[in-house]
Specification:
This protein is an alpha+beta fold. It contains eight helices and 18 strands. The chain has helices spanning 5-17, 22-31, 35-57, 62-74, 79-107, 251-254, 268-279, 304-314; strands at residues 119-124, 130-133, 139-142, 146-151, 159-170, 179-182, 186-190, 194-199, 205-212, 215-219, 226-228, 232-237, 242-247, 261-267, 281-285, 294-299, 317-321, 335-341. β4 (146-151) and β5 (159-170) form a beta hairpin. The chain is elongated. The N and C termini lie far apart (111 Å).
Length: 342
């Protein structure tokens, strides 16, 4: 027989399980005559007993045990029990520790994990546009100066994203998981459709243009729900907190998705706002009367200089491009264009 610790630890296990033979008992007894071996043996017994307690704890009827504990805790203790508690304090520490370990162990069992939603945010700076596909297969185009926040993996019950700015959505149909677009003031619910939502933070209103399918629009409180049909434009007033629907030509509202800027009798405030984001420039209006003008035109691939010249030809406006200045970190500031009345 090869006398080593591993062999006698195996004999100890067999002894605990009740499967040890008489000859093995004799070997174990002889091995334990050494004081050092006896110390190891006693430590193993304590550890094994602790594991046994832990296994028993899993079979405890938690509700019944809790009621018993509450009855004892809130009953008026006698002097006899107070003395008992003082002497039992040290003994109670061990099962409490085992209980804590048991709960910690179970909290990390498969299926008990706490999943924290991880989000992606795509930001498109002024002067650019971006197209991408979401995890569920929904196709999105983001206009200049916009951002979209979405989860890396959509939930089983719904697909929710947060929009700041303007985006075009071609939603992947999923009858069991509605697609939700959350903006600063309204929510849009859809199962599968194509629509455009213009929700820039500084704008006075939010515009939603529906091309295909059906969508439901509601305020952030969930009240005042509106169903939209294809060809309709819904305009939400941030000041009045109202929504108006109209049947209209949606071309100018979705033209940007094909690289075009389309204006149809739009106020000059809207024109310079869109041009500013599209070309990443800042307009400074020197004569307020300019803002009362309306403008109609379609731009497709023209440079900023060409657009400004066409604007000056069709409206009584002069423009002047100011030299770009450098900031303290030596980066150029946004290009500034001054508009004056002719």
């Amino acid at each position: 027989m090869e006398e080593n610790s591993a062999y006698f630890e195996l004999l100890f296990v067999k002894e605990t399980e009740g499967t040890i033979t008489e000859s093995e008992k004799a070997e174990l007894a002889e091995w334990l005559t050494d004081p050092q071996h006896r110390t190891v043996y006693e430590e193993q017994k304590k550890l094994w007993a602790s594991v046994g307690d832990l296994q028993k704890m899993k079979t405890i009827d938690q509700k019944r045990a809790l009621k018993k504990v509450e009855a004892r805790l809130f009953a008026r203790p006698s002097a006899y029990y107070l003395k008992k508690l003082e002497r039992a304090a040290a003994v109670l520490f061990i099962p409490l520790l085992l209980s804590a370990l048991w709960m910690l162990y179970n909290s990390y069992q498969p299926g008990n994990e706490i999943h924290e939603t991880v989000f992606n945010t795509i930001e498109v700076p002024p002067g650019t546009r971006s197209s991408f596909t979401l995890p569920d297969g929904t196709f999105v185009k983001l206009n200049a100066g916009s951002s979209l926040k979405y989860p890396v993996s959509f939930e089983k019950r719904e697909r929710q994203v947060e929009l700041t700015g303007e985006a075009w959505f071609e939603v992947k149909k999923d009858e069991h998981r509605p697609f939700l677009v959350s903006t600063s003031d309204i929510n849009i619910k859809v199962l599968g459709t194509s629509f455009n939502c213009n929700a820039y933070p500084n704008a006075a209103q939010i515009e939603t243009a529906l091309v295909e399918g059906k969508i439901e629009i509601s305020g952030k409180s969930g009240k005042n729900k509106f169903l939209m049909e294809p060809g309709e434009l819904a305009v939400f007033s941030k000041q009045e907190k109202t929504i108006e629907k109209t049947q209209t030509n949606l071309d100018k509202h979705i033209a940007w998705t094909s690289g075009k800027l389309m204006f149809r009798d739009d106020p000059m405030t809207t024109v310079i706002e869109k041009l500013g984001r599209w070309y990443r420039v800042e307009f400074r209006v020197e004569d307020p009367e300019i803002l009362n003008y309306t403008y109609s035109a379609t731009f497709s691939g023209e440079s900023l200089d060409q657009v400004l010249k066409m604007l000056a030809l069709s409206a009584p406006i002069n423009f002047r491009v100011l030299p770009r200045e450098k900031s303290d970190d030596l980066e150029y500031e946004t290009q500034v264009i001054k508009l004056t009345k002719k």
